[in-house]
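name: query_chain
kind: protein
chains: 1
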Amino acid sequence: MSYDAVVVGAGPNGLAAAIELQTHGCSTLLIDAANEVGGSARTEEATLPGFLHDVGSAIHPLGFGSPFFSSLPLDSFGLEWVHPDTPLAHPLIGSRTAFLEKSLEQTASALGEDGNAWTRRFAPFVASSKTFFEHTLRSPLSIPSSPILMARFAPLALKSTNRLANSFKSDQARALFAGNAAHAGTPLSHLLTGAVGAALIVAAHTVGWPFPKGGAGNLTLALARYFESLGGTIQTGSRVTSLADLPSARATLMAITHGQVAALTDTGLSESFLRRLKRWRYGPGAFKVDWALDGPIPWEDPEVARAATVHVGGTLEEVAASELQPWSGRLSERPFVLLAQHTLFDRSRAPEGKHTAWGYCHVPNGWEGDATPVIEAQIERFAPGFQERILSRSSWGPKRLERWDGNLVGGDVNGGALTISQTLGPARWSLPGYRTPKAGLYLCSASTPPGGGVHGMAGFHGARCALRHTFGIRLS
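structure:
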């Protein structure tokens, strides 16, 4: 059977690309090597029967706030969002926990002397959040609809997190900002990390940090069902090693990372372009642990249970020290742990009276050691008795994560290192947008703008590029 378009990779970006193409009348085949759709947004019984774990992504502020996903009727295809009242808790040893509330005013009030500074920094973006996210999740060639707003955002991208966080006086405000910026997976002394932190904070103050009821896989399953309802075709369990493996189509969209595209045979791409793809640098990997628990995590501060997401890492200085180690090829003895406790808000994920926990830290790309002991020891610092509640665990090092989802190269969850060169500099300029030198071949993974995160916007923009340049469809 022939198709107008073929999309390789059925994660959030591949699903978004396939939906956009099918919506505009292009018969589309979506292919994935795994036996089910979802990419890094899948849910499995990874520990014990009845315990549902998000092996990959777990909390989805950008998924709920995605300009594309939010435009789709996904609730009609089984998607239900869970909205914890408090997006984030950041416990500190010997002092009160810092909370990132959905209300900007409530967060600022709790930060005391830093409240006014917090409001000044984030209020302009919260007030214009729709415009803000449309621009930060944009195609690289788009013109911002509010240049003044984005000019105000520029200093957050062009200053290090260490410098930005040190503008606050309290440990609570400094730690909140640092923890959000640490999602970037690069040292907090680097530029652009502050922009990541600010974007996540703005998301918390506008849409919150929700997650799909029953597991992250319900988001991608709803996207797949919607795509099929439009007449699209899904083919799983089909690993692509060469473009010759694919049926002929006018457009082929690769929702796999740059290094993976370069490893394919018969791409028809020039050697110079392939060299540029091969030079793409991946960031630190993730070391992930899923836990089945006999009860909720026994936080030293019981108020931490108000939040589904917990940043376990202590002060700004501790978080910064932790995030520097993987970049230097080492494991931190006290890693910054991103943790989710879904079952406090979604009882469908575990048997009655039992709970799950999800957590990971950054490690060197491709690292083969076992970070489970230091991750659990770090959580134990803030939740004495945590380890006694563990019924079972499943540890996922970088290599195991990559075997599970090939897009997690070396365990990198962002599709590439967040550096100036790869975001705004020469490495990005040499790989402009989504088109390749080969007619009809496009790139649309997290290696393309706007980068990592479960939002589907790279797939959406890649599909629209194909619609314009291959199919001649004029888009508004």
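note: The longest strand covers residues 285-293.
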